[in-house]
């Protein structure tokens, strides 16, 4: 299959599903199509109409589509009364579908309390994972084999990706979009959705490309658009400044004032983030280095040591 072919994203819906757990990532993947990153979104459940916790019914198919390892299965969270923790397990058919996709080499995603369903299915045993801050202690207590990472937006461990509360599904979807199609596409998608500002600023899982977009400097946004799109290339400051119609000094001063970084440091942050994402997918150090613009792994190691 061509790597440019659309990926399928399957949302597994359970009665009581939280609307934003579904709508946030779905909007990201849908909007990305405007920038050349095409995803097919589909929704599966045990019944054709699934009531959400907010009262809006969601239509779904009852048969799973054919999936490849490139595709995603997303398990949004759903509302469970405090005294019914057992209700966090997926229905049997949905559980089997999620496990089959992962066993076939596919990627599995959870949003908020959806992490409990993955943990119950055994997919988080021995893995790092996160969930909403109000239930992260419960996740650790109920599933002691899970390495619960607290107070971060999202965590990726191999082909399992978990996110924190509610709207953090947007952050995780943007991260996956950046891994699939590069930081430029993800940055443009985020700007279109008006979610450029990053939350939880100390989280190691946050996106470098968006962490430094929390400003209103048009010149710097235009410079970042170029760097995001060509982060793996050798971008000389004089050429970048000339393309933007300003002096090197003007560009550097504006960039540092808006982001706290020089253009070169910003590009290096993008390269390092992309390198970590690829390494997490099992790429060799040499192949990672070449993918982010280095001739070999030595420069990448030096950059990591200096960061």
UniProtKB/TrEMBL annotation:
Top-level taxonomic group: Bacteria
Transmembrane segments: none
Keyword Transcription regulation recorded: yes
Organism: Oryzihumus leptocrescens
InterPro entries, alphabetized: Class_I_gatase-like (IPR029062), DJ-1/PfpI (IPR002818), Homeodomain-like_sf (IPR009057), HTH_AraC (IPR018060), INH-QAR (IPR052158)
Coiled coil ranges: none
Pfam hit, one: DJ-1_PfpI
Keyword list, A-Z: Transcription, Transcription regulation
Domain HTH araC/xylS-type: 221-307
SUPFAM superfamilies: Class I glutamine amidotransferase-like (SSF52317), Homeodomain-like (SSF46689)
Name of the featured protein: AraC family transcriptional regulator with amidase-like domain
The keyword Repeat is annotated on this UniProt entry: no
Molecular functions (GO terms): DNA-binding transcription factor activity; sequence-specific DNA binding
